Amino acid sequence: MHPLLEPWANFNVAVAGASAALAGLIIVAMSVNLDGTLLASPIPARAGASIGALTLAVAASCLALIPDQSLVLLGVELLAGGLATLWIALLAVRRIYRARSNVALDPQRPSPLRLWWPGKVAMHLAPPVLFTVGGGVLVTGNAHGLNWIAAASIIAIVTGVAFGWIALVEVRR
Length: 173
Fold this sequence. Notes:
This protein has one domain (6-172). The chain has six helices and no strands. It has helices spanning 9-32, 34-39, 42-64, 71-105, 117-139, 145-168. The termini are far apart. The mean pLDDT is 86.
C-alpha cells in the first residue's frame, strides 16, 4: 500500500462496508416495491445512479486498500469509474427532467415528484462529479485527491440513504 494511503485504511474499510450494505438495501427496496417503482418513471434511473455511486464508493475503498497501489494508478481507476458513474447519473437527470416536463404538461397526472427537482439532480450528480475530480487530482500524483474521494464517498452514502428512503416509503405514497 502506498504510504499516503495507509492513514486512510480504516476509513476505506468502513466506507466499503457501509456502501455495499446501502447498495444492497436499495436493490431490495426496489424489488419489494417493484410495481410502484416502475410506475414512477424516473425512479429506476435514479436507483441506477444511487447504486452506481455506492458501488463506486465500494470500489474506490477496495482499490485504495490494494498493496503497492500507486496514487496515479488509483487516480486513473477512479477517474474512469467517476466518468462511467457520471454517465449513469446524467441519464437519471434526463429522466428527472422529462418527468418534470410531463407533469407540467398534464397537471391532472399523479406525480411522484414531490421534492424540488434541482435537489434531485444535485443528489445524483454530486458523488460522480466529486469522484471524477478526485481521480483527476490523483492522476497528477497529488494526494489531495483522496479528500475529494472521501467527500464523494460520504455524499454517496448520505444520498444513498435518502434514496433508500424514497425507494422504500415515498414510492408507496
